[in-house]
Write a structure and sequence with these properties.
The protein has 273 residues and is an alpha/beta fold. Helices cover 30% and strands 18% of the residues. The chain contains eight helices and eleven strands.
Amino acid sequence: MNTPASFVAGSEPEVTGHAAALIVSKAWQAVASRGRFTFVLSGGRSPRTLYRKLAAGVDAQLMKLHGIQVPAFQKPEYGETMLDGLIRMPWQKTLIFWGDERCVPPDHPDSNYRMAKETLLGAPGIAENRVFRMPCNGRTPEESARAYEKTIRTVSGCVDTGTSRNIPAFDLMVLGLGEDGHTASLFPDDPGTLNESHSLVVAVKAPQANPRVPRLTMTLPLINHAESILFFTAGEKRAALAETIRAGKAPSSLPAGMVKPLSGRLFWFISIP
């Protein structure tokens, strides 16, 4: 049974701080419960401010302001928790993945990995062996998709059954929202990808997307198994679209509207100028 979505809209600093505080709290809860936090990043422009905030840390008072659980610092082996008076992510116990990627070199301006590297991956405590970028170069997109699915299954210890069963559950996934309703690299006019039920990661041609390059994307079965899904985007048009989706009035073929966590929580964070 789906839990009703939480919806937050406001100025960029307010929304960014609130979203970052929620992620930091969720991360520490996962580490305290399971010893690690599995975190899926979104690409595009919108999450830049969020990633910078996560890299810097959040104020405990901000968490209290929004009624978010403040982490209890009982296990220093999880990493340095405070920096300049701010609560940091448990980076030493955080595994970082991507929900989608453009098939360009990792240093290309359109690379989602590059954007995260510029805004987040330099945070103290993030080690290369805990960062799992989508491998889009040196092989075909289809080979890359299969390789990334294998990585996800290996890291999560989730065996491939060849069916829609035994799907790993990430602790928290950040997603974006396009004005056409796409999310990750799931597009409205691609029913084959939207209806994929067995593969966790697939290659997408996406001729309608910008830039027009092949992409890799996590599929809906994997996305909807996440413990928490956090849409983070900006703009009045996207805010109106998000409200339509939340109200259940969006077309059934709209990818973002098909994001419905099976047993987790869904959060919307929209910054409006």
